[in-house]
Amino acid sequence: MQTQNVPYGYEPRPERNTGTLIYYDIFEDTSNEELDAVADTADGRTFAKLVLYPIHEETAKRMFKFPVSPYYKREKHLREWMLDRASDKTTIDGWEGKRKKYTPIDAALRHLTETLPSPHFLYLTPEMANTFASFSSFEEWIVRIRMLLTAEPVALHPRLERFRNRWDVR
After folding, report:
1. What is the pTM of this model?
2. Burial degree of 26 (CB within 10 A; 0-12, 13-18, 19+)
């Protein structure tokens, strides 16, 4: 521990890191550069925690109707990236991997919001955001969370358009 001199009356700035940024995705073709951009966004917006939430292949099949690689392979890629990045703020939520079956986004969001510090922000690709907006429970969740999108969607789902004030492009 080092001794520091501070001026008389100095008070340290309050900790500004608040909330959780949850990256909900398949992580099939996500590059290290894209993961770095997410981590930089979390640092730039002073989130206390960045949670990577890879969805199970059964969930991906139901949501997008195409097969993806096994959960453990996609999780391994994320763990390798985390070792290279060496950030203590970033974690992987393996709840869906433990379930080993289809998990509705409602159940996943309920789990995440109950276990992580608020406020909650979902980090989504435009395709994932449109898919999320197509579910009937979207309106129930969008008032509790906010969303950050990787890019502006080419075609907006009507519910995304209606709740434009609840999401932003990073």
Report:
1. 0.88
2. buried
Over residues 75-126, the pLDDT tens digits come to 999 999 999 886 788 999 999 888 889 999 999 999 999 999 999 999 999 9
Whether residue 10 lies inside any domain: the answer is no
Q: In this structure, what CATH number is given to the domain that contains residue 142? A: 3.40.50.620
Domain annotation covers residue 122: yes
142 sits in the region (left: phi over 0; alpha: psi -120 to 50; else beta) called alpha
100 contact partners, CB below 8 Å, separation of at least 6: 56, 71
**Hey, what are 158's tokens?**
């009507």
- The one-letter amino acid code at 116 reads L
Q: Extract the tokens encoding 74.
A: 């996609």
Total number of domains in the chain: 1
Q: Which residue segment(s) compose the domain that 128 sits in?
A: 21-169
